Amino acid sequence: MKKFLAVLHARNMEFLRDRSALVWNLAMPFMLVFGLAFTFSGGNKDIYKIGVVGSNERLTQAAPKLPTTQHLQFIPYDDLDTAINKVKHHQMDMLIDVSSAPKYWVNTSSPNGYLLERIIWGAGADKFERQAVEGAEIRYVDWFLPGILGMNMMFACLFGVGFVIVRYRKNGFLKRLKATPLGAFQFLFAQLISRLLLVVIITAIVYVGCDFFIDFNMQGSYGTLLLVTTLGAMSLISIGLLVAAHTASEELAGGMLNIVTWPMMLLSGAWFSLEGAQPWVQNIAEIFPLTHMISATRSIMNEGATLAQVMPDVWVLSLTSAVFLAIGAFVFKWE
Amino acid sequence: MHAIITATDLVKQYPGVRAVDGINLAIPQGICFGLLGPNGAGKTTTIEMLEGIHQPTSGVVLYKGEPLGARYREEVGIQFQHTALQDFLTVRETLKFFERLYAETLPIAEVIELCSLTDILDRDTRKLSGGQRQRLLLGLALINDPDLIFLDEPTTGLDPQARRNFWDLVKLVKSRNKTIVLTTHYMEEAYALCDEIAIMDKGRIVSQGTPQQLLTEHFGDVVLQIPGDDAGGKLMQMDIGAVPAGELFEIKTNRLHDTLQQLMDNGINLDRLRIRAWTLEDLFINVTGKEHKL
């Protein structure tokens, strides 16, 4: 017991004296709580989601009572085809186009669409031209899968590579390597590739294993899916390398990895769609590589997006990988 | 003999501490050079600047007349005081791992034989004894067939037998015309291995030369040891400078003949008299003013 208390005391003192880690560990929960409270302060009381192509003024002119009807969420869209696809896949209950003669699209197999149609008729939209679309609902599991796999990859990439490098630095292994002709970039790149192979292979095994039982919806190409997944993992590993490039404190590294992973976990669309969220929240989400990876893999799997269609995401993932790895190698410390 | 590595006006300044304060060294090819000093004297800081691990605040280190660069990394072998190895690798895999980091290497079989690693080749490196681990670390330092090898306190924590086995290895390496720079806490180790030593204190070299040169330079006298029961109280009554040292009395003198005559004249029994040679331990205490503690 005496020995246990001595070790406990020594560990507590060590933790308390590591000021930077202490600050991170204290600041992180506060930032998380405040961040969440602020992000979702508006509440999410809307029952039906309606996409709108055209300005709010045009909508008000066309059906004055509709915008003020409670429990309807209006989501602006620029691209009509994208919005129609959402209705087809039950990801949106209705689409209204007021950019020309008012029309609305509703999925004939959607119960929400059926009810919403009756609501808008009562709110002055009964003269809108009706366009029926058909399409099977995308199962929640099909929507959810890219998010959950992406999140799992995020933790494996960031913590897997970040903590290992910090441990190497702490126990002097990196110092021993510094005494050899090995360069920082070579070392980091080898770490990246090693982890990349591991993560991609494990993710592929998980996907194939689950697909055997669940039969995932896969509309697009497996090659494109693999490319996006690989680039996404590279980008996330590069962040891990950057975080671990300088510090020899596992506590500090843990804090920094948490501050990177938690916002990504909440805002990258892994758990819930950010459609309809505040624009600034959506803008922040665009910064995260995980957002692009999940968005692209969802498009490939559920909508059959081609490589050309997900090219913006591919570029973002490629560029972030290169930039984070380059900065990581530049600021890397062996000791 | 040409110096393989030189250091000129080497200074390392940390906030509030001048760890190394203007060191000059020129280490000839093929010798074992010992860097000694009490804890905090600046030995490791000095050796790590020579290794190119840390940059000096000022001063220059030249290897074969050139600044330390990529060639240096290829041609130098280093055994740090504290080193971790990659977990979950065997001795053989670790040797192979390091072998792949260099352009030119010794055949692994030669390193294995040189460092007596045959019996532990398939053992996980985490399960090695202290002596086995140090032999492996020496093997890793030799794998690129370096001209210059740094050994930073390589036998600290080893039992006497393992330490002596390690000395034999170092002598074997030295016989291949390798230059060795060694830091150690053990004076007998420095005496057994080093052709030249430098004693550091407070960031400076306070004494440098061959061990024998330094002993001669610092100790012109000899120490006579006489068992107390033979001398009785007589020694203390004589004006001869006798000092009790455990069960013995010690007398320092630079006029041996006269002192012996004086002892015989006073009827001191000299049958069990011993003349003690000065050691590096004595030298260390003499030049640093500190008792040497491990």
The total count of helices of chain B amounts to 12
One letter per element, helices H and strands E, the order of chain B comes to EEEHEEHEHHHEHEHEEHEHHEEHEH
Low-confidence runs of at least 5 consecutive residues of chain A: 1-15
What are the segments of chain B in which pLDDT stays under 50 over at least 5 consecutive residues? none
The percent range for helix content of chain A is: 55-70%
What Rg of chain A, in angstroms, do the CA atoms define? 24 Å
Termini of chain A, distance in Å? 36 Å
Structure, explained:
By secondary structure, chain A is an alpha/beta fold. Helix content of chain A is about 65%, strand content about 5%. In chain A, strand 4, helix 5 (about 110-125) and strand 5 form a beta-alpha-beta unit. The longest helix of chain A has about 30 residues, at about 140-170. Chain A is elongated and about 80 Å long. Chain B contains 12 helices and 14 strands. In chain B, the strands form 3 sheets. A 6-stranded mixed β-sheet of chain B has the order 6-7-8-3-9-10, sandwiched between helices. Chain B is elongated, with a radius of gyration of 23 Å. The model of chain B has no long low-confidence stretch (mean pLDDT about 85). The interface of A and B includes residues 171, 172, 177, 181 and 182 of A.
